Amino acid sequence: SSRVVQIQSQMSERAVELLGLPGDQPCLLLDVGCGSGLSGDYISDEGHYWIGMDISPAMLDVAVEREVEGDLLLADVGHGIPFRPGMFDGCISISAVQWLCNADKKSHSPPKRLYRFFSTLYTALARGARAVLQLYPENSEQLELITAQAMRAGFTGGMVVDYPNSAKAKKFFLCLFVGASGTLPKGLGTECADGEEIHQAKFTNERTRFRNAKGKSVKKSRDWILEKKERRRRQGKEVRADTKYTGRKRRPHF
Fold first, then answer.
1. Which domains does the chain have, with CATH numbers?
2. Predicted TM-score of the model (pTM)
3. Does the record's keyword annotation contain ATP-binding (predicted)?
4. pLDDT, tens digit (0-9, with 9 covering 90-100), for 158-181
5. Interatomic CA distance for residues 119 and 81, integer angstroms
């Protein structure tokens, strides 16, 4: 329907804006889950080139009929992004990445598929490029799973949430940086009535998390271990129960 088309193009516009592309030169973008090419139309209108990937032959047939300007590839991004290193100046994705959290086949492992997607995407993007992935997470565990795999693959960045206080207009954009980390853009509608900002959850490079006063990482400390176990539980892995012995040093053996 025209309403869906309108929402889709608004999100595409916002995703491209969050990419922060240089205004004076055409860029080559990857559109993950491009469907019938609606976001691609916006990219073309902005003077950029694009390649779209989608798992649905029917959707790509519609894109071909509509004579979109981008090149189209029928593929499952859970198998990885099959392009040469550093090829793209940016990547956008509208309402697609959350599907990687579903295991459609016995052999599908969502963490593995997400990691395969993010690690090959990281390679396919030029240094300093961004990926902006708009998604509809089912719950906070899904967000955690998706962002954890993106960080594991080497990305920095975080979630930009537009209109966080609105049930209808709230939108999640995972904004990822390759190489030098930029500052995370602000979400739209995040100012309260009195001009106070709502603080968004940001995650940075995992590795700087556990630091003691001297700046050394307190790896293997009890807190570090408990936090790691908690993280693995959230990812649905089997983890032993915490006890008073968790994180204790063993005596040296003679």
1. 2-203 (3.40.50.150), 217-248 (no CATH)
2. 0.73
3. no
4. 999 999 998 888 999 999 999 866
5. 9
